[in-house]
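Morning - N-carbamoyl-L-aspartate inputs below, output right after.
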Amino acid sequence: MKHLLTTSDLSHSQAMNILDTAEEMDQVSQREVKKLPTLRGRTVVNLFYEDSTRTRVSFEAAAKRLSADVVNFSAKGSSVSKGESLKDTVQTLDAMGADAIVIRHPAAGAAAQLAASDWTQAAVLNAGDGTHEHPTQALLDALTLRRGYAAARDTGSRGTDLSGLKVLIIGDVLHSRVARSNVWLLTTLGAKVSLVAPATLLPVGAETWPVTIHYDLDEALATDPDAVMMLRVQAERMGGAFFPTSAEYTRRWGLTDERLAVVESLRIGPSQAPAMILHPGPMNRGVEISAAAADSPQSVITEQVTHGVSVRMAVLHLLLSGRSET
Ligand code: NCD
């Protein structure tokens, strides 16, 4: 593996290798001294053309825990606002000796374009390209689901996949790179994925994906999912009106306090463990998820953030440690 651009081309064994490596990294993160010397002398550039809190901070923490030098570049306040092209920016960063470029960009395909170009020899990690893909988010979601699934069955997490786990993804699928990356990865790992969304927020072609599609949230919850993954309503990507009002969205598609009561009764497989609630953040509390649902004991939202660092350490380690030093 040279780059991480999408989850759609990850094989089962590649995905499992990343998750198992992330488990090892997780142990490092629990130590008093949270550092490994693996990437000493290497440079990781965070190239962010879109806002981010969790993903950027998490990549930075991951690179630092592996002893890499980190350069943070955000388009705001840079020469990008003077009209500099992606090519010129990347060539500048490459000239400074970047070994890995973590890129978030509003255009779908930006990371792939960078990886295919001769602008840089660095490993390219897609941290979100438009509405297309967000592979490390899906990997951290998979790690979180796998941990919960293993705990419910009282087995170890390492080496186990998601076979048989029922995951319901809820909300703004149309604009969600998180949903797309999860559909590919979770199904590769053996999960059964369902989507439920307003018809206006389902992409054309979703019926060809390896998923079951529902149009009514209460009906979808009645299918007994083991995990519900809420998606943010991505208002910044909505040019027009996709639903009447925010209150109407919440009533029909939100994880409200009433629906939380339903989710509280769900159990993972035949175990007594309660179903998991996920959200990639940032949350619109009171829109797609109620405060009580976000903060409930079933919520694994903070675990997702913690696992984000371990997964990104694993990916940086796997992509860079196999390369000769530049
Ligand atoms: C997601 C993103 O940016 O795609 N957030 C994240 O990376 N944690 C989801 C979102 O913005 O809704």
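Note: Residues 12-133+306-321 form a domain with the Rossmann fold fold (CATH 3.40.50.1370).

O.
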